[in-house]
């Protein structure tokens, strides 16, 4: 069996957890799986609203404190029962700024939870690392909107740059807006100017972190009939954000609460989250925004990794893990990708990366009903918990898996792939899928046939090179798939023995 030492192996027994005491919500997330891209094993939040009264009283109100206490007791109990080995408890703006924040810290300590109260700068750094974890080539400004504060951080070349924290959490915006018309714009303009950040987002994307901004994206996805239920990577222009600000102001809350996948707990602050986004983007000079599903918690995990692990490609690591768990033969995907590579010498590096991910997932449909294996491949590619891949990339991988797993192509790409990626890219992915399908059938999914055979283009033919001793591999089913691949490439099929 081939072992690739640069791939982080799955962790089956040792789990870690983060309890995030935020200004709006308190959340427990338990992680397992590969270190570079850990899977979420459990996720629960309580909208305690710790920062709701800070602007008026400077304190966490008793009701919020009681909700927080109930949540922390449950989360402490759960982590013990789940035998989580490492539990990290962090608190942000509400606990940091409230006069009675220490009471909540003391309660957590009594439950065996040692609380780290992050500074605004540490909060910003964690958010920046979270975006880099999910979007390694990100180059722009991260904005992390919480209940009590808004952090900005410059990221570039995989590194954290300048960072700043503003008291502009979504639970504080309402009080600012109520003072007088245009007050939020004036406050944002002054804070950004005083911090020296005016215009620093010109020509750069504004990466959006936080549940409130994800809720805004989900609302826009609903309005535009976006074909994926995945907020990560979703983009909105500043002009569109301004439109959404007006639409939300005119939409009854009951209608907002009826929007699929839009958390009802986010609806009361959706207008404020949109208003502060529009005001901040204007001052930064950013015209494009992009949602990041990863933020503070993922950033804390990422920052704790060794440098070599941080450099791993999160898409490839996640596809390795998924393929190992759902496929029949561990590491087969790497061999398959190496085997088909000579057929596609002109693929750009970005395409090679997607092709590799598709090969790693090539066997995920084997245990599905044979009539639905192709659909299973599309489902995993489109809706899997992938990062470092955009919607077009998901569609391209989905097409490759659809073709690999026997999906028909007479009517073109399955829906909604044609809405997400260019047809030329999908046609190329179809050819990848046919090559993968040939390799799967030739080898039976095991290693040695791929190690002893080769496939290549030569003189207008797709040559399958097989040792004479292995000639029985070239059965009827293999011949059929060989001819299908050659036809898709505009060539003839040829068997070469040696």
The backbone outline, from C-alpha atoms, is elongated
Largest sheet: 6 strands, mixed
Helix percentage range: 40-55%
Structural class: alpha/beta
Computed Rg = 25 Å
Question: Percent of residues in beta strands?
Answer: 15-25%
End-to-end Cα distance, whole Å, is 25 Å
Oligomer: single chain
Number of E-type strands: 14
Overview of the structural elements:
This protein is α/β, with parallel strands linked by helices and 498 residues long. It contains 22 helices and 14 strands. Strand 2 and strand 3 form a beta hairpin. It is elongated. The model is unreliable at 1-13 (pLDDT under 50).
Question: What's a concise summary of this model?
Answer:
This protein has 22 helices and 14 strands. With 498 residues, the protein is of the alpha/beta class.
Features:
single chain, 498 residues, alpha/beta, 6-stranded mixed beta sheet, 5-stranded mixed beta sheet, 22 helices, 14 strands, 16% strand, elongated, disordered N terminus
Describe the SSE topology.
Layout (H helix, E strand, L loop, with lengths): L15 E6 L4 E7 L6 E8 L7 H4 L4 H20 L4 E6 L1 H5 L3 H10 L4 E3 L2 H15 L5 E6 L4 E7 L2 E8 L3 H10 L3 H12 L10 E5 L1 H13 L11 E3 H13 L2 H5 L12 H15 L3 E4 L4 H8 L3 H4 L3 H13 L5 H9 L8 H12 L12 H11 L7 H14 L12 H4 L2 H21 L4 H5 L1 E5 L2 E6 L9 H13 L3 E6 L1
Helix pairs in contact: 5-12, 7-11, 8-11, 9-11, 14-16, 15-16, 15-20, 16-18, 17-18, 18-20, 20-22
